[in-house]
Amino acid sequence: MTASTDMRASNGVARLRGGGIACPLPIDDRAVVQMAHGGGGTKTAEIIEGMLLPALTEAAVAATPGQDCRVQAGELSDGAIVQVGDERLAFSTDSFVVSPRFFPGGDIGSLAIHGTVNDLAMCGAVPLTLSLALVLEEGLEMAELQRIVDSIAAASAAVGVPVTTGDTKVVDRGKGDGVYINTTGIGRITAPVDLSPSNCRPGDAILVSGPIGDHGVAIMAARGGLHLDTDVVSDSASVVDLAMAVLTAAPNTRVLRDPTRGGVATVLCELADASSVAFDVDEHHVPVRPGVRAACELLGLDPLYVACEGRFLAIVPPEEADAALAAMQSRADGAAAAVIGEVAQGPAHVVLRTAIGSRRRLTRLSGEQLPRIC
Amino acid sequence: MTASTDMRASNGVARLRGGGIACPLPIDDRAVVQMAHGGGGTKTAEIIEGMLLPALTEAAVAATPGQDCRVQAGELSDGAIVQVGDERLAFSTDSFVVSPRFFPGGDIGSLAIHGTVNDLAMCGAVPLTLSLALVLEEGLEMAELQRIVDSIAAASAAVGVPVTTGDTKVVDRGKGDGVYINTTGIGRITAPVDLSPSNCRPGDAILVSGPIGDHGVAIMAARGGLHLDTDVVSDSASVVDLAMAVLTAAPNTRVLRDPTRGGVATVLCELADASSVAFDVDEHHVPVRPGVRAACELLGLDPLYVACEGRFLAIVPPEEADAALAAMQSRADGAAAAVIGEVAQGPAHVVLRTAIGSRRRLTRLSGEQLPRIC
Lengths: 374, 374
What we know:
By secondary structure, chain A is of the alpha+beta class. Helices cover about 30% and strands about 25% of the residues of chain A.
């Protein structure tokens, strides 16, 4: 009947100043929220690590004494692990503001289901149930809302996770953008896994479950303004079954992470920092579809920074790497999985070994590359 | 290891046509979302019962076979009960779009904490943890965001419920309104209670935990456009401890419900419909502060339709009514609690016995009374 709270941010951290990320407000353009604050990179971290984590961690420490609930929230930006009695639950939330709402390979409705079940799966959990909260803009066509609701329902049925509670709000015309969706999920962790961003060790293998960047390119093309002519479709999909297959084959998997906003490069930087290790990535081993590569070249983007919504990274101990890769490749949704590099001794950094043999340091996404990608 | 799903809406209900609420789309102004769809009354029910419940119930039935999780979602608009192993959990979500964001007695941040812990308490659950998802509008001042985050943290600490996972998105200027917040909570039901909107029986007492309408009037006054001069402050607060006190004193309580959007009248209409009973309410027993009464008279509003954010209704069997009332009144936050009427034989309807002795039928809130009240 005791309680403990362990959030990643240390307590006593000065407000607006997170671990290594200085955010000296208010100064010039930093005094207001910018689109880049939603990009998933360093600017997003300013808000999360600089503002939210210090305040909410302090509150959590004050809140939990005497409560029969052990909260082991690793990071605010991802799923939390909540122990309730004998049950180990994963708990994760995501808002979806993608623009446009309909795109090749998906829409905001199915994306909202896939996004949260995937976050639960990244915690090693089997998703049990989802909540659904809609913020509708006055003037949204009912027929479009119906189409989105049907897509939500179809995705819920397909992934086998029911929506059991919800909320609907309406905001004035010009105070929204059709519809914003929040889904929050509860999952159950039954496998004896220990997944954490700080678990990575030198020698571990870095696996990716399939070709990267499809979602981001599909969204950019759907926006139209770029006049990008491509047949790339979003990879938006549930990775739950594939993730569970990996955990069965490689029970000592260190961490799973889906490279959404900020892409593979940003996720690897975060993991390298959390584990104080180096990541060596072989560019020519990273699966990228020709259409994605062509679009990225045209736009001057690096696929390693482009969001996926149906892929994940698995950091796996060397002795389980073959089993994890085989488990992925034996399934249709993991056929293009690959080992893209390995973990080395720190200090924390990510190095890309390029196809021509040079080495390039990868850093977190900074600034606004792809706003409202999810 | 079996699964069952029981959502209130019956299956096979035609799309866009809910239980008794016809929504023949697309016709004229019904073809688009209107502000009234967010009011919590009949228009909101059109979307929830007419569109969401049929689609999502069908999906839930398809989703749950084979899953080791018993979902007993009563209504999509309120908390769901999720059985996980031996644990009985409550699960509830709410988005907060209140305008203005700061008002006498609270702000969008504390409201977002109170709103969801209260919904969990209405399920008979002790709140364990919350998620927090922010949708920020480009241009929001960082100093204001900090103020809201501090308010969230202070409320989290005060109610003793930690925020353990979160998400932050940014939308373009003109596509939001500063900040929208979603909180979703997990609670634990340990008391042997059986709360359901369909539990009300003739003879039951109708209790309210305190004076009604304060929140709605405070918001209207804060908007300024009405030039309403009042010192009414919002009742926004956690009702968790008070609700638990009621359940301890009156373990056979039929149902708890917080009268937010749509107010006391709308909630009673929903309960009457769900239980197929009549509710007789004595107007002169309903606690209303003089300032709220004066403001409502000025604006032509009925306090029974004005939202509260720190009050709840309890329907209690007659033999436990005195104990429930005493439990409320013995606490500072329940000192003004009152029995406001009783349940009678159906058919389902709500009748107000007015102070002058006449009888008036109360119906659900229709149309848009107070947009963006929470």
